[in-house]
Amino acid sequence: MEKVQRVYKAHCLVLPFPLQGHINPLLQFSKLLDHKQVKVTLVTTRFIYNTMYRGSSCTAFESISLETISDGYDEGGRAKAESTQAYLESFSKVGPQTLAELLEKLSGSGCPVDCLVYDSFMPWPLDVAKKFGIVGAVFFTQSCAVDNIYYHVNKGLLKLPLTDSKILLPGMPPLEPLDLPSFVYDVGYNPAFLEVVIGQFSNVDKADWVLCNTFYELEEQVVDWMTDFWPVRTIGPTIPSRYLDKRLEDDKDYGVNLFKSNNDACMKWLNEQRKGSVVYVSFGSAAQLDGEQMEELAWGLRRGKSKFLWVVRELEAAKVPEGFIEETTEKGLVVSWCSQLEVLAHEAVGCFVTHCGWNSTLEAVSLGVPLVAMPQWTDQSTNAKYIRDVWKIGVKAQTDEKGIVRVGEVENCICEIMEGKRGKDIQRNAMKWKELARKAVDEGGSSNKNIDEFIAILVKR
Ligand code: UDX
């Protein structure tokens, strides 16, 4: 069939930080732009490009182009670097040069770039955008609440190590130290990452746009506070319209996976389960559970009444108790990766035991799935605080003095959501937030209007 030549309003280069949890929202945002007649070129590192699985059902790459830059580790990626610090230094040295080469190439291609949308974890692309005279839009992948905390650390308004037992920040409920991101409450834990998250604010004042992966109604007070400083626009949730808005045909999954998926097996199994009967368990793409924690979780799932679908990434598989998978086939399915959106949208799923990564949180909010929060590190503790106390869409599993969630607690938390009285209130709240998320991305909704405004100003330049 002959290809129809599309007419575009503008051309955006979209550059995520090379991690699954950052590629997903920026790829989803790219699809939204593409749908609104903006040409998008998604840029990844060469290593990611060569190793990613492209979903066979993803139609996005028929119109979204893929290009690469270098982080200095084209063979082997981040795992080959001596340390996170060494990787980041290399990326900030080699990245700008190869990004500039790409922009040169595209400027002579007949479809020059108007705007660079770049991940806030890397401030350096803004200098490249300025050099080329194009719009620089920084994209914050995490919640505005978390951004607010890092901003206060960056400005020295929240001093580390923490000394107060109650932390008061504008637009946020009173927080205890353990509600803050792990890099903040445990300063020595990962200094390189602390530098990254604080560095997000090093040149944000010079960005033309500050795009936030959230929706206004979800974080109203923090967003209002941020809007006093920067040209903030909330654009989330970036969930494919297939799930939130049935008017549009969209693809089945995110489109790019850094892990090989067993999704067909998941869907087949879920299709055989009763409505609302399954507990979905996943800890995202990066968290590494303590071996003892993995065992407690496994036995907790086995002991509970509900069936479960548990994602255990290949690198974590050795921590699952021996024989557990074979002996639990009646009760649960363990897979190494799935299309999480499709799973969360499935009517059989009644609860999500999650590490509270921001994407997982926003996906559950948008699909109305109640949560059992088991935060592990980075921003997840703050997300868990909001899940339980602000949005009231889940419970938080309590840890013992060793920081482990024990078998009984796993079982009780799941039971509370699936069968308890509190579970009913939580389900009602989850449905309320689902509806608000849908409205935000619908015609005339807060995020939809913000994206339209962003595009309109690009077009006027
Ligand atoms: C990391 C941090 O943990 C997170 O807190 C931060 O906001 C982004 O970077 P990650 O640990 O991967 O992300 O968690 P999360 O943010 O939840 O992102 C995981 C993504 O992978 C989600 O979009 C989820 O839908 C997807 N996923 C996960 C799958 O598609 N299949 C799976 O089996 C598991």
TrEMBL record:
The keyword Transferase applies. It is an enzyme of class 2 (transferase). SUPFAM superfamilies: UDP-Glycosyltransferase/glycogen phosphorylase. Gene3D superfamilies: Glycogen Phosphorylase B. One of its GO terms (molecular function) is quercetin 3-O-glucosyltransferase activity. Its EC number is 2.4.1.-. Keywords: Glycosyltransferase, Transferase. It comes from the Eukaryota. InterPro entries: UDP_glucos_trans, UDP_glycos_trans_CS. The keyword Protease does not apply. GO terms for biological process: monocarboxylic acid metabolic process. Belongs to the UDP-glycosyltransferase family. This is Glycosyltransferase. It comes from Rubus argutus.
